[in-house]
Design brief:
Structural class: mainly alpha
Helix content: 55-70%
Strand content: under 5%
Shape: elongated
Largest sheet: 2 strands, antiparallel
Number of domains: 3
Number of strands: 2
Number of helices: 19
Distance between the termini: 143 Å
């Protein structure tokens, strides 16, 4: 056994470098072939408009990946004998290292001499010199080929002779829209579930009502002024909350009569039922309609018969359209209408070419779940508004009792709800002979109010004239314009005392009163007056009329028809 460690180590190093060189050469040629194939595919896809979504920069990375895999799996693995021949060729040693590699298989007395000679020579042989890595030219060629392919991917125009590119673009856009809508629906559902309250009323409304109850229980008959100030503050806060809910969510719904106009093909009875229930804070019928719609969507996804599928699809589409019209035209709720419109659009996507119908129908079901939550929020808002309206009526009753110094918080110790307070105050008012409509007059900013004597606090007056003192000196000067008086516009109008033409003035006054009566209902809705004030306003304007003798009843102002004032023009 002859040992030659240096020679063996040299041969192994050279063999490894030959192995690496073989892999690199295989990668180079495989890469060039892959670039050629990709270039052909690129030209076919771009010029014919076929499978254009596959020829992109990310897919270009497949070329070097394929080249590397092929080279690693399929390349030449040099042996130690090949390494010995390479070393002998490079060093000019005439098969010295080849003999060493085969020395165990050879016989003769020359083996020790050969081994010593090889060991001495191995000291001076460098593996890097035997197998140098000089791949600069090949690397440059491969890089150039890759850059040319990348330039083609970026700038080679796409032609669409068969309309494939446009169709694929539409499918991609629809798929993107479906994903975006699905994500938005899930986010909105999570938000509504997070904001959902356990009780029938919202936390904000409950807090406002509790504050009012606490304030009412602290009322004292001897603190009339303080009571009124506190009541006005509570009234303003509750009014603001009522107006906010009305303006944001339920203004149009609560201002309409359930028997109002009918639109589209929506069944009148169904429309009235939905409107009435929602106004009362219930969504039972609407929720049932949505559940039936979800069941229809599930059946639609499982139906394979084209005729039955078409009939069921028409039925679902009609019901969705009815709900969408109700949400947009009757309730005027943008979130509710948006959820229904999204469900309709997703159902339409289910039958479009290239779309996953099951995924689209599943997204439509999610949108209907969102619709149920939106309806639930609307119903809660309606309940909040009814509770706030009841609170405003209680405040009105409390103000009337306070005016008579009969508002005592100790009497309300057993009251738990607004209904209890309303019942208690109604009994006290009945004992005092008060009605729920008198004594009310409210300022814009919560000014004091009460029964007026013509020039008293704001409220329901009983007529009278403001006192005048002619002895007070003023800077008034009597002057007359020197302008020429000609036919045309009225330049000056002066009111003077005297007898007017009774018939014409009275007729004009009655026409004005009738116009006021006709317009006050519309003004109530436009100004978002809480329903608690509607009866008082109605009573005021119904009594706003003049008698045959010319005296106005209960409005705090004399009849202009008999005031003795006329216009001189």
């Amino acid at each position: 056994m002859f040992e030659s460690p240096r020679s063996v180590a040299l041969l192994k190093q050279v063999a490894r470098r030959l192995h690496v060189a073989a892999i690199a050469g295989r990668v180079y040629w495989t890469f060039l072939v892959s670039c050629g194939l990709y270039a052909v595919a690129l030209l076919v896809c771009r010029l014919c408009g076929i499978a254009t979504e596959w020829v992109t920069l990310p897919t270009l990375l497949v070329v070097p990946a394929v080249a590397a895999l092929v080279a690693l799996a399929w390349h030449h693995r040099p042996s130690v004998l090949e390494a010995a021949r390479v070393v002998d060729k490079h060093s000019g040693t005439k098969d010295l290292f080849l003999t060493v590699a085969l020395i165990e298989k050879s016989a003769g007395e020359f083996q020790p001499l050969v081994t010593r000679a090889a060991e001495e020579r191995a000291k001076r042989v460098k593996p890097a010199a035997v197998v140098p890595f000089e791949g600069g030219r090949e690397f440059g060629q491969a890089l150039l080929a890759g850059l040319l392919i990348a330039a083609g991917v970026l700038w080679l125009p796409t032609f669409d002779p068969f309309g494939k590119v446009e169709a694929a673009g539409q499918v991609s856009q629809r798929q993107k829209q479906l994903e975006q809508a699905k994500k938005a629906t899930e986010e909105k559902i999570a938000q509504l579930k997070k904001e959902e309250t356990e009780g029938p009323l919202s936390e904000e409304t409950e807090k406002a009502l509790e504050n009012l109850k606490s304030a009412l229980k602290k009322m004292s008959p001897r603190e009339k002024s303080g009571n009124l100030k506190e009541l006005l503050g509570q009234q303003k806060g509750i009014q603001d909350k009522w107006r906010k809910l009305s303006a944001e969510k339920l203004k149009d719904l609560l201002s309409q009569n359930p028997q109002g106009q009918q639109f589209g093909s929506l069944d009148k009875d169904k429309l009235e039922k939905w409107t009435r229930e929602l106004q009362e804070g219930s969504t039972k019928s609407l929720q049932q309609e949505l559940e039936e719609l979800k069941d229809d969507l599930k059946r639609l996804a499982k139906t394979e018969d084209p005729i039955k599928r078409d009939e069921l699809e028409k039925q679902v589409k009609k019901r969705m359209k009815d709900l969408s019209n109700f949400a947009s035209e009757k309730v005027n709720s943008k979130p509710l209408a948006a959820a229904l419109q999204r469900a309709m659009k997703q159902m339409e996507m289910a039958k479009m070419e290239g779309m996953d119908s099951d995924e689209a129908l599943e997204s439509a079901e999610k949108s209907l779940d969102l619709t149920k939550l939106e309806l639930k929020e609307l119903a809660q808002s309606a309940k909040d508004m009814k509770a706030l309206e009841e609170a405003l009526k209680v405040i009105q009753q409390a103000k009337q009792l306070n005016d008579k110094e009969k508002l005592d918080g100790e009497q309300a110790e057993g009251a738990q709800s607004m209904e209890d307070y309303a019942e208690l105050y109604a009994e006290l008012m009945a004992q005092l002979g008060l009605s729920g409509e008198e004594g009310e007059g409210e300022g814009e900013d919560g000014d004091e109010e009460g029964d007026g004597e013509g020039m008293g606090n704001r409220g329901m007056g009983r007529g009278g004239k403001a006192p005048e003192d002619d002895s007070v000196e003023t800077g008034f000067k009597t002057e007359q314009s020197k302008s020429a008086v000609t036919a045309g516009k009225v330049l000056l109008s002066v009111k003077t005392k005297g007898l007017s033409d009774r018939g014409d003035a009275k007729k004009e006054y009655r026409e004005l009163v009738n116009k006021v009566k006709e317009g006050y209902s519309e003004a109530i809705l436009q100004e978002q007056v809480p329903p608690g004030y509607h009866d008082g306003i109605k009573s005021y304007f119904d009594n706003f009329d003049s008698s045959e003798s010319g005296e106005q009843k209960g409005t705090g102002a004399a009849n202009p028809a008999d005031d003795g004032k006329a216009d001189e023009k």
